[in-house]
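Thread amino acids onto this structure.
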């Protein structure tokens, strides 16, 4: 394993921690600034929207410099954003710090995916991408519960200061371990943008939005669902989220192992199974043990799609994958925001706390349908290419032999 992948994973760990830890600290932040819980929820929404906007923006701004230097600048921006959050004198300043940190998120994972894939042999690309994303999944097992504990015990500002320190470690790791990898000669921003004219790139991104949206339709409302429907104590929600994180780690590693050899079959299985588990979650959510098992499976099946979908975008974008890779990271967050909104709609409509699971199931099945469509279009294009006549070289006139 190249040590550079470890540096990328450390950066991913810090980013994953700052993205999700705020959910466990909203009451403390709201009380400190004297705002309501719904208002403090803007710290979650603002971060997600910042990722969606920042992914293409920061990647486009970085087209003139090497990928290593851009990764270092992004980690520096991440550190600044978290320090702003830790020192924020007002809620508005806290929100600004969250948005600054979020601008680094999509571009770091997008450019990092390209770098990770180039560090290994072609048949190991998905595994390398998965190893980097392991930092994000481990953050949900260690970083988020740990950061929540620190924030509740010492103060939420300390949590964000610790996350900023993690960013410094990630920055140092990238500077020391990631080789200098200049952009390919001749690839310009217009070439990166041209990748979005490829239907397969757009289909992969749509699968990302819908598939990952299916996961967060359920997980966004996991706390009230588990306490009111399953009967768990409030204190148990943290451990249920740890189970979700463990499922994410296992699914991510599974996806990285098989995506290089069986990418599309892996997507069929994981998206189809995710739809089934989410549909069953409307029933299993009322039983403690079955609910816990379902949460692990949702995390595993959801994150098993991450390496194949990210690799699919890299493969289809071909010679100019950086912008497409970064935008696909934004698509994950767009799926989060879309699913949370749809889940809230069905709860507000009076369908009950488990209704978002049906929304998630429909989103996952829709992603599966797009995967089938994508494969069908690819086969049709392959047949068309094979059937195309091969241009023959012009025949030379035979010169008479001279005796």
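Threaded sequence (403 positions):
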């Amino acid at each position: 394993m190249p040590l550079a992948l470890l540096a990328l994973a450390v950066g991913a760990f810090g980013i994953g921690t700052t993205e999700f830890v705020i959910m466990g600290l909203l009451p403390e932040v709201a009380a400190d600034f004297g705002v309501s819980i719904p208002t403090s929820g803007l710290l979650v929404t603002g971060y997600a929207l910042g990722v969606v906007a920042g992914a293409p923006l920061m990647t486009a701004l970085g087209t003139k410099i090497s990928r290593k230097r851009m990764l270092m600048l992004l980690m520096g921006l991440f550190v600044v954003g978290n320090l702003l959050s830790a020192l924020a004198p007002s809620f508005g300043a806290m929100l600004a710090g969250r948005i600054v940190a979020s601008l680094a998120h999509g571009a770091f994972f997008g450019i990092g995916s390209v770098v990770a894939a180039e560090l290994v042999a072609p048949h190991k690309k998905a595994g390398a991408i998965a190893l980097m994303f392991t930092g994000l999944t481990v953050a949900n097992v260690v970083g988020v519960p740990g950061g929540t504990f620190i924030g509740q015990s010492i103060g939420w500002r300390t949590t964000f200061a610790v996350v900023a320190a993690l960013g410094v470690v990630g920055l140092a790791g990238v500077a020391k371990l990631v080789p200098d990898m200049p952009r390919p000669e001749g690839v310009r921003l217009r070439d990166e943008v041209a990748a979005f004219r490829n239907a397969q790139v757009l289909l992969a991104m749509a699968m990302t939005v819908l598939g990952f949206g299916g996961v967060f339709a359920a997980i966004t409302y996991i706390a009230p669902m588990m306490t009111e429907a399953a009967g768990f104590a409030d204190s148990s929600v943290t451990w249920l989220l740890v189970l979700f994180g463990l499922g994410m780690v296992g699914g991510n590693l599974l996806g990285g192992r098989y995506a290089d050899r069986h990418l599309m079959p892996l997507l069929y299985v994981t998206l189809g199974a995710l739809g089934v588990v989410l549909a069953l979650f409307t029933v299993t959510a009322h039983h403690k043990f079955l609910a816990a098992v379902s949460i692990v499976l949702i995390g595993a099946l959801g994150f098993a799609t991450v390496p194949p979908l990210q690799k699919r975008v890299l493969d289809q974008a071909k010679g100019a994958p950086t912008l497409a890779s970064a935008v696909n990271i934004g698509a994950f967050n767009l799926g989060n925001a879309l699913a949370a909104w749809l889940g809230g709609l069905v709860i507000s409509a009076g369908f009950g706390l488990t209704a978002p699971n049906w929304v998630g199931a429909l989103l996952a099945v829709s992603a599966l349908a797009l995967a089938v469509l994508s494969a069908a279009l690819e086969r049709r294009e392959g047949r068309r290419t094979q059937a195309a006549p091969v241009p023959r070289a012009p025949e030379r006139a035979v010169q008479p032999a001279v005796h």
